[in-house]
Amino acid sequence: PRSSLLNTLGHNTQNFRTTPNQTCEVSTGIGTIAGSNVTNVTVACTTNTHTVGGTVSGLAAGNNVVLRNNGGNDLSVAANGAFTFTTPVADGGTYAVTVLTQPTTPNQTCVVTSGNGTIAGSNVTNVAVACTTNTQTVGGTISGLAAGNDVTLQNNAGNNLLVSTNGAFTFTTPVADGGAYAVTVLTQPTTPNQTCAVSNGSGTIAGANVTNVTVACTTNTHTVGGNVSGLAAGNNVVLQNNGGNDLSVAANGAFTFTTPVADGGTYAVTVLTQPTTPNQTCVVTSGNGTVAGANVTNVAVACTTNTHTIGGTISGLAVGNDVTLQNNAGNNLAVSSNGAFTFTTPVADGGAYAVTVLTQPTTPNQTCAVTSGSGTIAGANVTNVTVACTTNTYTIGGAVSGLPVGASLTLRNNGGDDLVVALNGVFTFVTPVTDGGSYAVTIAVQPTTPNTVCSVSADSGSVAGVNVANVAVQCGPNLVFSNGFE
Fold this sequence. Notes:
4-stranded mixed beta sheet; disordered N terminus; mainly beta
């Protein structure tokens, strides 16, 4: 019986109780009965303990998570893999594993599964802690986008976002905490062409959504210009665009207005002030249109110097006669009547004019004189040139012969112009005769001391462009017979 009891006691030292699992230890359990009952055998039982642990996954390198069991046993885990709480739990006791402190570098969320239960005779190794890095959205605001336009933004070279209105925007794909973001413009707006610039567009996610990215869009501007030709040296023309941007151009060649025009905007180039030294007229072509994504360089301004006519009045021109006038040694004008005349070829403003008589009238011969015939064109037609024509005159004369010394005779022309001649030789009447006019020389008074008879030959005719010098007066004695006959 003793051996049986000992065997029984010894056998049940490990499995005497199982709910919970305990380990009982026997002391003073072996000896020899010595005439009395044995009462000093002691059996001390302790409940078995077991560890609680499991595995961590998804923890970012360099990060750590603090786990807690049963509200008190904390364990900092800094790497993926197996973990075990330092304080075991008595068999039959409960365990409750939670996350005390989530990882923060980067921010992660760790979730416990199989974290609650009762110890049942063995270590717990199946607690699973799965960590995922937190994600945050990236966005901001856009301003200046033209109505009806759109811009395509991109984050981290892959997440594209089409934005068509001003205001807030948010990319569809979030970014992991601690990760970088880089917002750029993938496609600029084109209707009209705009340039959108990003500020606060890059950085690192730090535990919160990014909302401060700003995209400011401005409509592109383009210059308006072209080319000026024909502008006189030293002159200038003032051009204007859109009724307000004035530009003074002082030389031929390219020009560009100082104020650009927004893409999609209109331009209208006009001449504000025409050139005046000399007066010119500048005409704009291709001056209107809409800016379409590029500078305007095809506006053409062609300047031509204004021209004015040269003319005046002619007087004294004989009926049926004509005179040829000339301007600037080249422009000829035949005039056949008195009154106004105008040369056919105008003269450029600021240019000189010089009116002369190229061919004088000849039927009859006349001399036409020009006054106010030269000068410089100054912004108006010249109308004050005067041409005064007078018919040429010629003298009438000849020679006297046979006149006795001391005698004199009186010659008469055209019944009125008397000339006393007292010597033989050449004579000339005082009053000339107009070209084409007639002359008739007679003897008004014969010589009387002594009595002499003079006769005239070649005594009449018409003046024909030269002085008449061939009238001949021949004198001889007056022979009177007593019976009255010569």
